[in-house]
Design goal:
With 678 residues, the protein is an alpha/beta fold. It folds into 3 domains: 258 residues, 2-enoyl-CoA Hydratase, Chain A, domain 1 (Alpha-Beta Complex); 181 residues, Rossmann fold, CATH 3.40.50; 87 residues, Orthogonal Bundle (N-(1-d-carboxylethyl)-l-norvaline Dehydrogenase, domain 2), CATH 1.10.1040.10. The protein contains 29 helices and 19 strands. The radius of gyration is 28 Å and the shape is globular. The chain binds 3-hydroxybutanoyl-coenzyme A and 1,4-dihydronicotinamide adenine dinucleotide.
Length: 678
């Protein structure tokens, strides 16, 4: 059966797409739309058209799997131009998500009706693109340049209600009566002249006040740094006010094609599929019976425990949080409340939502209160004895069949599991700080972790808004393990004469939000320090002894002013020179290229070892970890994809030039001219 069918209801023709999972606008769907419109135009009995989709969503966009391949069938732009040209009113009936090309289909229709839960958006920018089927030209003509800018340039979808408020949706209809309401709406338009988005004039706001474009760029500068597509999006929306519709469409096409053939979009499309692949566990039936998670326990209300709890509370899952002492518990709970209240102050939560989340949080000092939890996550001190003690207690108390997880950063999850009589229910759930904000969740699969336990954790990650990847048990798992060689090289270069702010700047220029020494300052240089000011065995000891504990005390590697601006410190410069002299390393100028290669190539090598040892399921999982957990720039696709674009032979040559190790997998892939991804 065709993926697009038609249904004649007296004088109305319904064109219905049913192409699971998301009604992506692949060749067959585009052809079906063209045929449907032709049928409507050639049938004299038909006076209006409704376009809708079966399944979970309206068209979620162009079919991304077709990108980079030779075009097949009708082009989306031409297909939707025919809809708009129709004299018979065409109504888009929207549920789920009308995204990208899907939103462009809706824009080409004369009217848009949507259910309250529907979302509309142009997320192409997240794939390193701009809309390519006249979205940048029609949208501003309907809603104005100012309202179009965030949709095109940031790419977050908006609700049906917001879409109605800005004029993108004509009517919000019943959640359960979309098809009928759309038909009634279409009938009411018969005989009226059709409004065409391409002829709209809301775009004049940007002509009257052209400052909006620069203001938008300035306001979002930090978020957009390094990405090509956002600037192209701004240019296209601006063109919508300055040019005729036809010229604007040609301009959009030119910008779109340039982005489509560039590395950034290839990298971001790689990431789109990588994120979805990372959630899948090879060799396990995805339909395996999951463990229902209705109540969660969190042990430790410190930095991590509080943030971890917030993820579940925000998703409406009750949490019991456990501490050893009342004051620590009170402090932890107060921090959670403060964080929520700050979010509410910024308008991202209502006061009721804050109370709703706090209302399902139960503070406790007694392990017994965890007995009926379906999942308990331990976030106590990073110490094996303490963790074993906690897991021993949990094993005694928590009901059988519940999952016991550790948030350990480095410790051996198998050893922790061995402290229980149910190692198959134990795994690592490694959140990143701040745990309520950072997207990454490394799910650590122990030797004995049962498949359904692992898959439950992976599925749960989506529910709490995380992006998860599976790691095997190894020191630091995927993320921290790869951080280690980078830090080693950064430190070594200081001893050889590099300035630490230059080392940081190399990574900033690459697209990271911060460099290794800024990161140390932010995390706190004193973490794990022995706290004896007279015992100075490393440069870190020396910094700590001088009270340079990091940003929280206003000085670490850098001095910080009130607005937290970093300024290189003469004191630290001298300290580094002293330690450099002590190590007896020849002092020399180190180029930015060398710095970049010495920090990033060893990470690729470590990633290759992780793959070689089977600690990651696939190279793209490593990309997902580093993009979401450590700010590796998305537009490069992550460390392994980036290495592919550099060329693995070049990476190997670079490592050898700097006297750094090359593992067998990296060497053999380079020799065979292969890539990590594809
Ligand atoms: N093309 C091809 N496959 C797609 C797709 C698309 N546009 N959107 C989703 N899929 C696939 C996913 O890869 C996934 O496949 P899998 O099951 O084999 O892993 C499956 O559909 C389900 O997707 P999700 O797991 O993401 O399902 P969710 O329900 O969580 O999310 C969604 C649904 C919000 C629609 C989300 O999939 C999404 O954001 N999709 C991409 C939307 C997008 O970027 N559209 C713009 C495309 S570019 C474009 O339109 C250019 C145009 O201007 C010319
Ligand atoms: P923290 O020191 O801020 O909090 C630990 C809390 O656990 C303290 O409040 C302490 O009172 C409590 N605690 C200790 N033993 C306990 C017990 N037996 N029962 C109940 N409560 C107990 O530490 P943080 O930073 O939250 O780290 C916790 C875990 O998370 C560690 O394993 C750490 O390696 C890991 N982690 C830390 C990250 C970070 O950036 N801070 C990032 C990712 C993981």
């Amino acid at each position: 059966m065709s993926v697009v069918t038609t249904n004649k209801l007296q004088n109305i023709l319904e064109i219905i797409s049913d192409s699971p999972p998301v009604n992506a606008l692949g060749a067959a769907v585009r052809q079906g739309l063209v045929d449907g419109i032709e049928q409507a135009l050639s049938d004299d009995e038909i006076e209006a058209v409704v376009i809708r989709c079966e399944g979970r969503t309206f068209f979620a966009g162009a079919d991304i799997t077709e990108f980079g391949k030779p075009p097949v069938g009708p082009n989306l732009g031409e297909a939707i131009d025919r809809m708009e040209a129709s004299e018979k009113p065409v109504v888009a009936a929207i549920h789920g998500t009308a995204l990208g090309g899907g939103c462009e289909v809706a824009l080409a229709c004369h009217y848009r009706v949507a259910v309250p839960s529907a979302k509309l958006g142009l997320p192409e920018v997240k794939l390193g693109l701009i809309p390519g089927a006249a979205g940048t030209q029609r949208l501003p003509r309907v809603v104005g340049a100012e309202a179009a800018l965030p949709m095109v340039v940031i790419g977050n979808p908006i609700s049906a209600k917001k879409a109605a408020a800005i004029g993108l949706v004509d009517k919000v209809v019943g959640e359960d009566s979309l098809a009928d309401d759309a038909i009634a709406f279409a009938r009411a338009q018969i005989g009226k002249p059709v409004p065409r988005s391409s002829a709209g004039n809301a775009n004049q706001d940007g002509v009257k006040n052209p400052a909006i474009f620069d203001e938008f760029r300035a306001k979002n500068g930090r978020k957009l740094r390094g990405f090509d597509a956002p600037n192209a999006g701004i240019e296209a929306v601006k063109a919508a006010g300055e040019m005729s519709y036809e010229d604007g469409v040609a301009k959009e096409r030119e910008l779109f094609m340039k982005l489509m053939s560039g590395t950034q979009s290839a990298a971001m499309r790689h990431y789109f599929f990588a994120e979805r692949a990372a959630n899948k566990v090879d060799g396990v039936d995805p339909k395996i019976d999951l463990i229902p998670i209705k109540k969660v326990g969190v042990i430790g209300a410190g930095t991590m425990g509080g943030g971890i709890s917030m993820n579940f509370l925000s998703a409406g899952i009750p949490v019991t949080i456990l501490e050893m002492k009342q004051d620590a518990l009170d402090r932890g709970v107060a921090t959670i409340r403060k964080n929520y209240e700050n979010t509410a102050k910024r308008g991202r939560m209502t006061a009721e939502q804050v109370e709703g989340a706090m209302g399902i949080l139960t503070p406790s000092l007694h392990y017994d209160d965890l007995a009926d939890c379906d999942l308990v996550i331990e976030a106590v001190f990073e110490n094996m004895d303490v963790k074993k003690d906690v897991f021993g207690k949990l094993d005694e108390i928590v009901k059988p069949g519940a999952i016991l997880a550790s948030n350990t950063s480095y410790l051996n999850v198998d050893e922790i599991a061995a402290a229980t009589k149910r190692p198959e229910y134990v795994l690592g759930m490694h959140f990143f700080s701040p745990a309520n904000i950072m997207k990454l969740l490394e799910v650590v699969r122990g030797e004995k972790t049962a498949d359904n336990v692992l898959v439950t954790a992976m599925k749960l990650s989506k529910k709490i808004g995380k992006v998860a990847a599976v790691s095997g048990v190894c020191d630091g798992f995927i993320g921290n393990r790869m951080l280690s060689p980078r830090q080693q090289q950064a430190n070594a270069m200081l001893m050889e004469g590099a300035n630490y702010w230059e080392v940081d700047d190399v990574l900033l220029d690459f697209g990271f939000p911060m460099g290794p020494f800024q990161m140390s300052d932010l995390a706190g240089i004193d973490i794990g320090w022995h706290r004896d000011e007279t015992r100075i065995e490393t440069m870190r000891d020396a910094l700590c002894a001088k009270g340079r504990w990091g940003q929280k005390v206003g000085k670490g590697f850098y001095d910080y002013d009130e607005s937290r601006q970093r300024v290189p410190s003469d004191e630290v410069k001298e300290l580094i020179a002293e330690w450099g002299a002590k190590e007896g390393k020849e002092q020399r100028d180190i180029s930015a290229d060398e710095m970049r290669e010495r920090m990033l190539y060893p990470m690729v090598n470590e990633g290759a070892m992780i793959l070689e040892e089977g600690m990651a399921q696939r190279a793209s999982d490593i990309d997902v970890v580093w993009i979401n957990g450590y700010g590796w720039p998305l537009f490069t696709g992550g460390p392994m994809f980036w290495a592919d674009t550099v060329g693995l032979d070049k990476v190997v040559a670079g490592l050898e030039k700097h006297g750094l190790p090359v593992c067998d997998l990296l060497r053999s892939k380079a020799a065979a001219g292969e890539k990590f991804n594809g």
